[in-house]
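Researcher: Let's continue the batch. This sequence belongs to N-acetyltransferase domain-containing protein, and it's 247 residues. Same format as the previous ones, please.
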Amino acid sequence: MEVLLEGLVDDPMFDWTWRYRHQYPWDNYYYWSLRINSMINNAGVVLLVVELDEADKFRDKGDPVGTLVSFVVWKRTGEDEHAKQRRSLKAGILNMLDRTVNTLQDYSMTQHYPEGRRDADYRRWAVLKKGVKAVDATYFTHYQNFWELELLATHRKYRRHGAATMLVEWGIRLADEEGVPCCVISSPMGKPVYENNGFVLASEEKWVFQVKGEEEKVECFVLIRSSKNERVLSAEAGDGYMIVSSL
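Model: Same format as before. Here are the structure tokens for N-acetyltransferase domain-containing protein:
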């Protein structure tokens, strides 16, 4: 959790949505831990981490080998054989029990704390959720099979050392092997990382989230890394990495 909270501390979208996290740090920590556990136990989801080892010359003396510095959450969507095989990895009885525990924890929290998490601005959160659904309907529903990068964070002390790139490359390499595209909804802070790894804007349109009557707002971008076959076709057409086929 330290990596997530330290890695997203200066992310505009994170700060905008959880605007009261400094007043209620316990809520921010606990509810995000529930969210991460739920992600881990979902079928089709892969969580990868980067840890320090003896070869890391930038490692602070106070940070031991094995210190977690970055993580990513990838999710495989679709009904092809690769997607089914990925989901089957979490189809066991223990995985089902884990998901049941997550559901019970969520229910328990709603009963003990009916007012909900105190770190959130619920009006902004509602706008964000509505906006993400609109993004899904506009872009992602056109794809039957794809990998989506749901969450990426690197501890502030260890940025610009390649950890995030390594985690992004894992997903795009697997997507190329499976012949499917990758998608991500990115804040302005993460956009350069994805563009440097072959993602392109799905459109020039920026998605702006804003509560009516407020001056503060945040924006996000939808980026796609088209499948290997599409990139070959696109290159042959002289269009660089633009998506040229209908999906």
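Researcher: Any comment?
Model: The radius of gyration is 19 Å.
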